[in-house]
Amino acid sequence: MNIPSKLIEDAVTEISRLPGIGKKTALRLALHLLKQNEVHTEALTLALTRMRQEVQYCKKCHNISDGEICQICASMRRDKTVICVVEDIRDVLAIENTNQYQGTYHVLGGVISPIQGIGPEELTIESLLERVSLSQEDEEEPIQEIILALSATMEGDTTSFYLAKRLKEKGIKVSTIARGIPVGGELEYTDEVTLGRSIMTRINYSTE
Amino acid sequence: MNIPSKLIEDAVTEISRLPGIGKKTALRLALHLLKQNEVHTEALTLALTRMRQEVQYCKKCHNISDGEICQICASMRRDKTVICVVEDIRDVLAIENTNQYQGTYHVLGGVISPIQGIGPEELTIESLLERVSLSQEDEEEPIQEIILALSATMEGDTTSFYLAKRLKEKGIKVSTIARGIPVGGELEYTDEVTLGRSIMTRINYSTE
């Protein structure tokens, strides 16, 4: 593609750095902004700049927040004795949408991935361990359980394994969300690893 | 989706105004920018702002350009007696990529679409007619042919029809790009309208 304008070419280059956006889509977006009134571009760039400069992270759970402590950590209705460990804010939103969970969160900011150069120290793991230690000294609301809700990928499993090991040293109950066939999923189309795991980790009706 | 930060929500709203980007993708892009170093967001917003504020349109053909006259109109190698009329700059790029066309262009900036409220006066049609008139006075390089290269949609055809009518009043040769089965396309899978048209507008081998 030989764009006859350096200005557009620069914009296309920058837009196409975003994940999942190629050169063609970037050009389409750039031309869309050019066609629209100038205020649209101004509103977009202002919103992006403000977001990048002013957004804060909750000091407790590292979730994105407009203040020092996020709404979930600040809420009196949430169960502070349970922490659900997730990769990023999208997972928080997904779990919140289920309306099934009343505890708090801890956002890791990623998963351990040696290929991408992400080790445990790049994540908020130390902060999680500290949170657990602090709560154990505090007799009112000590943390009872840590639920690991990471993706069922190699990196997610590695991170879960690492976290479980570190957390067990503190003598705290660690659980992980169930892996199995999705609700509505048909048995014959489920891949063998998932099916195998769902048999291994079967739930006993009588004790439930 | 209940995003716990007004700043991110604003950014997501603005990003999702772009064509083909929904709320979920917008959130993914916003979180990507948050994860990246701040310079990436700065580079993106600067490129967009500069593009929107500084880009110019060629005074002759309305193609996007960094100067008053675009590279194609300014080039000595291009045949100034043929003008190819297209909808927007993407079509110019597509035709340039074929390496088959040596004439100049005229960018309409859209097609006539009563539903979207786009009439002939919103497009650069008057400017095209003026270009033709001016060239007819100029004895050196009068325009010989106008090639209409608009999409084979209802709006594209309406615009072609309108342009052909207006241009014929000027006594200039008007042609349109061929509609037919694509190269590599199989006859049996071609829709009936295209196939019908390709039979009606068949090319005579002997006179070619």
From TrEMBL, chains A, B:
The keyword Metal-binding applies. CDD domains: TOPRIM_recR. Residues 81-182 form the Toprim domain. It comes from the Bacteria. Keywords: DNA damage, DNA recombination, DNA repair, Metal-binding, Zinc, Zinc-finger. One of its GO terms (biological process) is DNA repair. A zinc finger (C4-type) spans 58-73. GO terms for molecular function: DNA binding; zinc ion binding. Coiled coil: none annotated. NCBIfam families: recR (TIGR00615). May play a role in DNA repair. It seems to be involved in an RecBC-independent recombinational process of DNA repair. It may act with RecF and RecO. PANTHER family: RECOMBINATION PROTEIN RECR. HAMAP family: RecR (MF_00017). This is Recombination protein RecR. It comes from Algoriphagus halophilus. The lineage of its organism: Bacteria, Pseudomonadati, Bacteroidota, Cytophagia, Cytophagales.
